[in-house]
Amino acid sequence: MMTLEQIRDWHRAAQNSCQQTASSYFSGDDIGDQYQLMADEHKEMADAIDAHLAQQPDLAAIREVIADIVKWDENGDRPDEWKLREWHQNLARSVGDKP
Fold it and tell me: Which long-range contacts (CB under 8 A, 24 or more apart) does 87-92 make?
């Protein structure tokens, strides 16, 4: 099985190969345009994988929310709507989502 990094690297290599073929052998004709289109598609895939890999959750922020939830539970308190919303927003931010 391939990792995402390996798949990204394969797309980058395919992008470079398509660009070289387009510019070296078929520059300025329809076949060259097709190779450039393929290169662009490989670039989009590699860029999308890079963007996905760059999203790293903030584990410290997640642990902080969990600790706060545990504290509320240990005290026997029931969180109000505002506290639940705060937890939701903090968790969403910690994984890179907009709350």
Answer: 90/61, 90/64, 90/65, 91/61, 91/62, 91/65
